[in-house]
Amino acid sequence: MKKVLALILVVVMVFSMAACAKQSTEPANVQPTDTNADAEKFHIGIVTGTVAQSEDELRGAEAFIKEYGDVDNGGIVKHVTYPDNFMQEQETTIAQIVGLSDDPQMKAIIVNQSVPGTVAAFKKIRELRPDILLLAGIPQEDTNMIEAASDLVVDADNVKRGYLMMLAAKKMGAQTFVHISFPRHMSIELLSRRRTIMEEAAKDLGLKFAFETAPDPMSDVGIPGAQQFILEKMPSWVQKYGKDTAFFCTNDAQTEPLLKKVAELGAIFVEPDLPSPIMGYPGAFGIDLKNEAGDWPAILKKVEETVIAKGGAKRMGTWAYSFNYTTTLALAEFGKRVVEGTAKKDSFEDLMACFGKYTPGAEWNGSYFVDVATGTEKTNHVMVYQDTYVFGQGYLGQTKEVIPDKYNNIK
Predict the structure, then answer these.
(1) Alpha-carbon span 286 to 228, nearest angstrom
(2) Nearest to residue 208, comparing CAs of 198, 216, 217, 218?
(3) pTM, two decimal places
(4) Is 72 in the same domain as 201?
C-alpha cells in the first residue's frame, strides 16, 4: 500500500512540474493572431462631391474601392461625400471629413475637390489625430491656409498652362487665340494670372491674343442663356478672327456649345479649362459613353472617332485622362504608399509615379508652387499638368517643353 501511495505522489509531482515548466515558457501577454493582423491593417478615407457636383472625382473614388475594397466589406477604403450645396452647408462638410478620423485604423484622408470647410476639418483632425496623413486635391480655399493645414496639396498647374496652351495653339496652326470669360472668373487670382501669362506668351510666340466677354451662367440668364450666347456669337467671332483661331473659355457649361461650333466652323480648340475627354465633348457631339465608363483609353478612342468624323482632326484636343478623376486615384494611392512606407510624403517623384500608374501612355510634369508675392517655393504644394492630346494626331509633347522662367514671375 505504501508503494502505491508513493507511486501516485511521484506521478502528481511530475505533472505539477511539467505544468509549471510550460507556464514559465509562455509569454505573459499573449495576443490572438487576429488582433495582431488588425493592428497592422489601416484604412484610407476619401471625400468627394456627389455625381451632381463633381462626377469625375467620385468615379475615381469608386475605382479605388474596386481596386482595394470597401471597409464595410473587409477592404481598406472608406468613401463619403460632401453636400451639393457645400457653400451653405460647411458644417456638414466639416463633419463628414472629421468623421473619418473616428476610425482608429484610419491613417490617411484625401479630399478632392478641397471645397470650403476642408481647412477647418483638417485643423480639427490634426488636433485629434496627428498620425493621420492629410491630402488635399484641387483646393478652393486660401492657398496659405490649405498649405498649412495639409501634408500635401495638389492642383492643376495653370501657371505653366498659361504658356503651354499658347504653344499648343501655335503647334496646331493657330494664328490667334481668343480667351472667353466673365468678371466673376477674372476676379479669381489664378485665372486672372493665367490670362495675363497667356497674353504675354502669345506675344512672345507670334500669336494675336483677344479677350471676349460672355454672360456668367450664375447671372440671370442662367446656364441655358450663357450657352445660347456662345452658339450665336461663334459665327461672327470666326468671321472676325479667322478659322485659324484657337478658342478657349473658362466656364465648363460654355465649353459644350463652344466645341460644337468650333467643329462646325473649322476653328481650333486646344483643351478645356478642366481637361478631360468627357469635358464638353459627349454633350457637344451626342456621344454615349455608358459602356466605356471608367475605361479612359476606350473613352478617348470613341470621342476621337466622333471628333474626326465631325471634321475636328488635328484641330481639337484635350487631356487623355480626366485630371479630377486621376487626382482622386493618385492621391489615394500615394497616401496608401506613404502609410506602407513604400513612398515618402515629401517626394515629388513618388507622387508622380502614382499619377503615372493610372494614366498609361500619358506623360505628366509639374513643379512646386511658388508664391509670386514672396518668391517662396512651397514643397507641400505640387502643381501638375498632363500632355495635350490632339485628336487625329496624338500627343504634342508638351511635358517635355522647357518653359521660360519669366512666366513664373508674372502676376
Answers:
(1) 17
(2) 198
(3) 0.82
(4) no
